[in-house]
Design a protein that fits this description.
The structure holds 2 protein chains of 2 kinds. By secondary structure, chain A is α+β, with helices and mostly antiparallel strands. Chain A has 6 helices and 10 strands. By secondary structure, chain B is an alpha/beta fold. The chains are: A alpha+beta, B alpha/beta.
Chain lengths: 238, 595
């Protein structure tokens, strides 16, 4: 493993088959991301992890590392555009952090902190989205879904269940549940499933556990997402 | 319904790959996909029901809610609008007593808009239960309303409602002398397969879909893959508004297109090919099947083609209303019976395409040209056109001109020559390459049709001086928002934001910063989107904003108070230093009136 790429001028080793994200994480370099999770097939849809590879924009989570790549990651231009993309995610859904149980533990919020997002910038869409509180243990609040598909992938790849899917096209995309009624209670979801715990926002919450950790004592109340992410996603960090 | 679905699933071998074809049949029969059908198909095809629902909700021609027994769709392309579509659909809605976007209470008829139907030279156009209606006018609407209200079956409707013209206005090297059936294959076998690939290379043939990748290189890459199951796919998902040449090529020269695909199959070693035909071209399906059957009977398809030991056949797969499926990896997903979401690349389709196998995807016109090159050799083709752009380009010309239709010109032809040829005068501008292409102004009419100058998949829309540039950009911007697949954030949210932001300006609610905000949003969508759709979705705004900044500025609301100092004058030094003299470098913030 003596092949290297450079990220922001620093030499980063990689092995054949690794993505830029994997090589970066292994070398303790944080690339902002939301739809990526090291345990699941990369998706490449949120575009927060966009880096410049030899001058061209690529998604770090899906783009293979290759000898001689010069990657730009932590630049003012990229971070500014990542902030704009985060703002897009905020205005598309209905994200009211102060009233959300996930606040302080939410990756969307934490990425926004990290990128110094101070406002929504764009007009809010005020999308009409429902809640599904039918399941005794798990709640879906569609207002907060960002279509990262982590629950879809976790259910398929880890739980072996296919409980979730993304349906629709364009701005009408929405999360659906694989049950005859369309409701979560009639699906195969168990509260112990990976899919019930993987949501980076407050769209899928475990019931009866709300506010056990007071606001102010939560993960991102005290740590930047780059530290948390590297500590938990580093291949040797656990 | 159970028996129907079982029979249907059996016809398609219970293969999930054929989900689109199966859903098309269900939609045609029940005018929606009923919930019990979803449950039954999930069982029969061993698919999660959520995946079937995902597909239904992705494609415009599938519906979870019942549509009318007569499903009427009217093309909302800019060219249809220029031919009076808006008044026509209003008249239709009034006569049928149904609001646009709804089903009439008795369930007999539904009416909605649809993206460009590829009949731009004979609009306003529409579809009734998937079949094209052309040159619509009030008299035809009156006839249709009577037929619908009398519940007359479509086969009994007067054929003139469905009449389609090829409108071939000008031919050149390719269309002057089309090949005789089998000639390209005979030439290929006589010359040798490897030598034929060399001829295609020598011809300098590049993909006709617009991107212009070298055809011989693509075929060679695919043939060199270690995986030996390989596929040939012809992209006939001609969805770019203003494009309709593939419709004509498949109506008139299908044999040559299939022959080009078969030559490709011989070269890359494929046994199976697909023609992915956009759903709007349903009317071509049966005639194309007949052409395929004739080719099988002539020994040009099937086992042991021309006794050369090569086996190859072609299947036709219909789309279901999704512009994004023209993107090759989305098209492959759709062929596999899935939502048309572009894949992450690499791997590219030549390495991992259909079912993960090496796949060549080329445009209809590319295969047509490849067959001609196989017969006539590469030098003949390379002698035409410009250095980097060999051969000719077949254009779909529509909009404000005397003779819309199909034109073939050698690469290197100027826009002015083309405009003169189709009888266009008083021209305000031309949209080249469709909404995803470029809007050019009269100062640029000496520019050339070529990959190195004005690349186009074939769309050439002409606007005369009575047209409003902002209306055009707005129509295209709405189109992209409607057609975004929604996979990535910049395109899913960005195209909707572009729509809102442009609407704000067009409707006269924009103020000084709004054009700047619009432009920076354009850049983000262009630079960060996952695929070509998002990367070009801002082009209608960017290309018109670069040429007519004053039109955008003129829409901005006059600010109603007198500021303490003249901001515009204060910028004079900055403008001088930046060498900016354009309107976007001025801030007109002093309003004359107060509301």
């Amino acid at each position: 493993m003596n092949k290297t790429i450079t990220i922001d001028g620093k030499a980063i080793p990689f092995s054949e088959g690794q993505t830029i994200m994997q090589a970066a994480t292994a070398a303790d370099v944080y690339i902002p991301h939301l739809c990526h999770h090291p345990e699941f097939t990369p998706h490449g849809s949120c575009k927060l992890c966009t880096v410049k590879v030899n001058g061209r924009n690529c998604s770090a989570c899906t783009f293979p590392a290759a000898e001689g790549q010069e990657v730009l990651n932590n630049t003012q231009e990229l971070n500014s555009d990542r902030k704009t993309i985060t703002q897009m995610l905020f205005v598309e859904g209905n994200h009211f952090c102060p009233s959300c149980e996930k606040t302080g533990n939410c990756q969307l919020q934490a990425v926004a902190y990290h990128l110094n997002m101070l406002d929504d910038h764009f007009p809010l869409f005020y999308a009409h989205r429902a809640m599904d509180a039918s399941h005794p243990e798990v709640l879906i609040d569609h207002n907060r879904c960002i279509f990262c598909t982590l629950c879809v992938r976790a259910s398929r790849e880890h739980d072996g269940k296919d409980v979730f899917a993304i349906s629709g096209r364009g701005i009408n995309k929405h999360l659906i549940v694989n049950s005859a009624s369309g409701q979560l209670k009639d699906s195969a979801l168990d509260s112990g499933d990976k899919a019930a715990h993987i949501c980076p926002t407050g769209a899928i919450l475990i019931k009866h556990t709300g506010y056990q950790v007071p606001i102010g004592q939560r993960v991102y109340d005290h740590h930047q997402i780059n530290e948390v992410s590297l500590a938990s996603e580093h291949p040797h960090g656990e | 319904m159970t028996a129907f679905l079982q029979e249907l699933a059996k016809t398609y071998g219970y293969q999930a790959n054929h989900l689109l074809a199966i859903l098309r049949a269900v939609q045609a029969r029940y005018h929606h996909i009923p919930e019990p059908a979803i449950e039954a198909l999930a069982d029969l095809l061993h698919l999660p029901r959520s995946q079937i629902i995902g597909v239904i909700e992705f494609y415009s021609f599938f519906h979870l809610q019942p549509q009318g027994q007569y499903e009427l769709l009217i093309s909302d392309s800019i060219t249809d609008q220029m031919l009076g579509k808006q008044a026509l659909i209003s008249y239709l809605a009034e006569r049928l007593q149904v609001s646009i976007g709804t089903v009439r209470a008795d369930g007999l008829v539904s009416l909605a808009n649809t993206s460009c139907t590829g009949l731009c030279d004979q609009g306003p156009a529409g579809l009734v239960n998937g079949l094209p209606l052309t040159q619509l006018n009030c008299a035809k609407v009156d006839v249709m309303v009577l037929l619908i209200n009398a519940q007359t079956p479509l086969p009994e409707w007067p054929s003139e409602l469905f009449a389609i013209s090829d409108n071939i206005q000008k031919t050149d090297v390719l269309l002057n002398q089309t090949i005789t059936r089998g000639a390209a294959l005979q030439a290929t076998f006589a010359r040798g397969i490897a030598a034929t690939l060399t001829e295609i290379d020598r011809a300098g043939l590049r993909g006709r879909g617009g991107a212009g990748f070298k055809t011989a290189m693509k075929w060679r890459f695919c043939s060199e893959e270690s995986e030996t199951t390989r596929y040939v796919v012809c992209n006939a998902d001609e969805g770019e508004p203003g494009t309709f040449k593939d419709r004509v090529l498949l109506n008139r020269y299908a044999d040559q297109v299939f022959e080009g695909m078969t030559v490709c199959a011989a070269i890359i070693g494929a046994h199976q090919g697909f023609l992915y035909l956009r759903g709007e071209y349903l009317f071509l399906y049966d005639p194309l099947q007949t052409v395929l059957q004739h080719r099988r009977e002539a020994g040009l398809l099937g086992n042991n083609i021309l006794g050369q030991g090569i086996d190859f056949d072609i299947e036709i797969c219909l789309g279901a209303g999704a512009y994004i499926c023209g993107e090759e990896s989305a098209l492959i997903e759709s062929l596999e019976g899935k939502m048309g979401i572009p894949r992450n690349r690499p791997p590219y389709p030549v390495t991992q395409g259909y079912l993960g196998k090496p796949t060549v995807v080329n445009n209809v016109e590319t295969f047509l040209a490849a067959a001609a090159v196989a017969v006539q050799g590469g030098d003949w083709f390379a002698s035409i056109g410009t250095g980097p752009s060999k051969g000719s380009k077949i254009l779909s010309i529509c909009g404000d001109c005397a003779r819309p239709g199909i034109y073939e010109y050698p690469f290197g032809t100027t826009v002015q020559t083309i405009l003169d040829g189709c009888g266009a005068d008083d021209v305000l501008g031309v949209q080249i390459g469709g909404p995803s292409g470029t809007f050019i102004s009269p100062q640029e009419f000496d520019r050339k049709l070529a990959f190195e100058d004005l690349a186009t998949g074939g769309s050439f829309i002409i606007f005369n001086t009575s047209r409003n540039i902002l209306d055009i950009a707005n129509n295209f911007t709405h189109f992209f928002a409607h057609e975004s697949c929604g996979f990535c954030t910049p395109c899913r949210v960005g195209t909707s934001l572009l729509k809102k932001q442009l609407d704000k300006i067009v409707d006269g609610h924009g103020s000084a910063g709004d054009v700047v905000a619009l432009e920076s949003l354009c850049q983000l969508v262009k630079n960060y989107s996952h695929c070509g759709l998002g990367q070009t979705a801002a082009n209608p705004i960017l290309t018109t904003l670069a040429r007519y900044p004053e039109l955008y500025q003129a829409q901005l609301k006059k600010i109603s108070y007198e500021p303490g100092f003249d901001l515009d004058a204060a910028l004079a030094t900055a403008r001088r230093m930046a060498d900016r003299h354009d309107a976007a470098a001025h801030l007109a913030q002093i309003g004359e009136d107060y509301e």
